[in-house]
Amino acid sequence: MDFAFLRPYAPHLLSILRIFSAGTFFTHGTMKLLGWPAEFPYPLNGLTTTAAVLEIVGGLLLTVGLFSRPVAFVLSGLMAFAYFLGHAGSGFFPVLNGGEAAMLFCFIFLYIAAAGPGPISVDAQMGRS
């Protein structure tokens, strides 16, 4: 089956991917720092607090699509760091080491850094993509 009929929607689907991924990412930070939507089950330290601030600020900026490329690049690096620091030591396969979310966020954000935010973004409205 030819899925070429979806091609005209690709830019808007990129924006939707960015919005939902960044919005979900944002809640990881709010859970750590604000206890919302649930309490974070581990004690905070310097690394998790720094990650939480990046998740909240970066998640908000990326959700609205402001400074999307550099923010997505930084967040991609954060998630690569999180994966190798927190998950890779527990085995190779992300499904077994609990690192699926970190791996997916890493590559989604890396793609957004390369592709841009899509047309539904503050960056696009300001003429920056």
TrEMBL record:
Residues crossing the lipid bilayer are: 12-30, 42-64, 71-95, 101-122
Q: Indicate yes or no for the key word Isomerase.
A: no
What is the predominant subcellular site recorded for this chain? membrane
Top-level taxon of origin = Bacteria
Task: Indicate where this protein resides in the cell.
Answer: Cell membrane
Fetch the InterPro entries from UniProt. Answer: DoxX, DoxX-like_oxidoreductase
Q: Name one GO cellular component term.
A: plasma membrane
Alphabetized, the UniProt keywords read: Cell membrane, Membrane, Transmembrane, Transmembrane helix
Q: How does it sit in the membrane?
A: Multi-pass membrane protein
**Pfam families linked:** DoxX (PF07681)
Q: Does the keyword Membrane apply?
A: yes
Query: Which family would the database say this protein is a member of?
Result: Belongs to the DoxX family.
Q: Which PANTHER family match?
A: BLL4328 PROTEIN, OXIDOREDUCTASE CATD-RELATED
Q: What is this protein called?
A: DoxX family protein
- Origin species, per record, is Mesorhizobium denitrificans
